[in-house]
Automatic annotation (TrEMBL):
Compartment(s) of residence: Endosome membrane
Domain AAA+ ATPase: 111-246
Name assigned to this protein: Katanin p60 ATPase domain-containing protein
Highest taxon listed in the record's lineage: Eukaryota
Principal cellular location given in the protein's record: membrane
Organism: Paramicrosporidium saccamoebae
PROSITE patterns found in the cross-reference section: AAA
A molecular function GO annotation: ATP binding
Family: Belongs to the AAA ATPase family.
Amino acid sequence: MSHSEFFQATEEDSAGNYESAYRLYDSGVEHFMTAVKYEKNDKVKETIRKKVAEDEENAKMQSTLSQAILTEKPNVRWDDIAGLEGAKEALKEAVILPIKFPHLFTGQRTPWRGILLYGPPGTGKSYLAKAVATEAQSTFMSISSADLVSKWMGESEKLVKQMFELARKNRPCIIFIDEIDSMCGARGEGESEASRRIKTEFLVQMNGVGNDVTGILILGATNLPWALDSAIRRRFEKRIYIPLPEAPARSRMFQIHIKNTPCLLRPEDYKQLGQCTERYSGADIATVVRDALMQPVRKVQGATHFKQVEGPDRADPKRTRRYLTPCSPGDAGAIEKHWTDVEGDELLEPDLGLADFLKSLQTTRPTVSDKDIAEHVKFTADFGQEG
């Protein structure tokens, strides 16, 4: 590999053009291995081959990891998240402020290096991470520890090292690790050697001697915080409990998920939905809304009669036209008809109202149990902080 080729490869690498850099490195390796053929000393040959193989492996890993860097912002703003004000403020303190006002964090006042978001499933931990990625002016790497462990068994500790190396090259950088308990579970008798090596490497990288973690924040998320290795848990200096949403936040979630879908819900209806969804997570409410949005479609499918109504013309909203909409057999002007006999452009779907959401609530139950909540409350009392 000539000096110019090497310089070009490292330039591409530093600029974040990892695919181009990898091709240049790979080409250089081929040229180098050709030159090795003419080396007469066998020990030197073997040493060079091992070094080249290692460098090539590292380049492949960094190329794989580079795919985890979000090049486009997820477009989730703080205001898009209902409730969780404490968690949002803690994340702003840890992520946004140090980047925007670095002069505030000098001397002994240093930013948090590790934040753990924990709580029952579906409470918005990953959504908070998306808001961080949107709002923070920094590189954002999103890693699934479950994928990391399953796809790279035997190589996972090397990938952890490369993950931190890539973060150092792209500082300031946030590494978001979802399901971190899969990678850093508590140690036990049945633990594999590979699992021990992963945790050891993670500990070394987060707080090891000679490893500069300035400008790097590890943001972890887990539904099972008590399953984390105690040494790993201590590396997450800030541990934030993401609880089930309160009634006002649940009302706001219904509004967020319905968005601009036409419906007849009034402010008092949203309040009622928030009050009657005790113990529902954000994910549960999203499921309720999706099911409720299908209720008008089900009315169309199940209808035996349709009637003509006036409505705004879809092509020109300033004009009105006649449509067919499902109705009861006893309604005035009811026509016996099956939905398959209605033309696509003449159907007007039924209004979406409170009754549709209440009907969906009867079949969509909360997924978080009292036992789950009790375990998280106990962990918070022992190790965490309220979000």
